[in-house]
Amino acid sequence: MTRRVNVAILVLLAVAFLIVIQRNLLSLNDFLRKEAPDTVSGAILPFESEVSPGVRQDSKRTGDEVPVVLTASEDRLGAVVAAMNSIYQNSKANVVFTIVTLNHTVDHLNEWMSKTSLNNVKYKIIVFKPDVLNGKISNNAKRLETLKPLSFARFYLPLYLPEAEKAVYLDDDVIVQGDIRELYETSLKLGNAAAFSDDCDSASSKGIVHRAGNQNNYMGFLDFKKEAIKKLGMRAKTCSFNPGVIVANLTEWRSQNISGQLEHWMELNAKEDLYSNTLEDIITPPLLIVFYKHHTSLDPMWHVRHLGTYHRLEPT
């Protein structure tokens, strides 16, 4: 009888021990889930917020703001949302987006933002008025056909952020794979209003755009036979830069009236056709003139060109 009682007690102790072990394992599992949630910064694909709207976003980010400016055209809303998502998922910074768009796109843009996990990010919408370009665009039919007013939005950065001292501008076709704070904290040279990635420091230095020639120096963008260009004394073989990614010192931009300088060259080009005849790009040339040898060079890894785009290359 005593032996049976002892066996029963041992069985009960074993069961109790197993119950304790199970509870401890469950507690450990819960702890690990809290320490390593499914949403890990940098591990989410750019479009994941679109296909998985339940992905959580941190709406309580604090600290110094990191202003980021993008444009959003009606036919490229998916692109700008992808760009914003890549920025937000790869940084813990207190990013504040300024989205510049046209009036007829505002409602559609708000709808896109409200139906994705980006509805928790900090952003404001600025309506760009194309009237500001009156008298500043050449009547060249070929260029007018490809003209996109929002492309000029980058010329007026201080107007969108009157209180900010610095900002990052990004084209809507970018995907950011690093921490945007690091780009924002790029140190600009004294007196420089902007930093760009030089074309000679990137993969695009070997690129040949069909019918446009070599576009990694000033000769590919400007007509050096024109008197107004000659007077500037610029070297035609100076390396050009790409304005798709800009770190702007807005204080210097205002002080030097960069927007006014850009408008001056736009107006002069409309009268004298100063840009290269083989070029459809009318955004880069005035920037090249105004920032000639007066800009800071970005680390080229912040602006890797032509990913997903085909360009014909010359044999090496």
UniProtKB/TrEMBL annotation:
This is Glycosyltransferase 8 domain-containing protein 1. The keyword Membrane applies. It is a single-pass type II membrane protein. GO terms for cellular component: Golgi apparatus; membrane. It is found in: Membrane. Keywords: Glycoprotein, Glycosyltransferase, Membrane, Signal-anchor, Transferase, Transmembrane, Transmembrane helix. One of its GO terms (molecular function) is UDP-glycosyltransferase activity. It comes from the Eukaryota. It comes from Muraenolepis orangiensis (Patagonian moray cod). Its main location: membrane. InterPro entries: Glyco_trans_8, Glycosyltrans_8_dom-fam, Nucleotide-diphossugar_trans. Transmembrane segments: none annotated. The keyword Glycosyltransferase applies. Belongs to the glycosyltransferase 8 family.
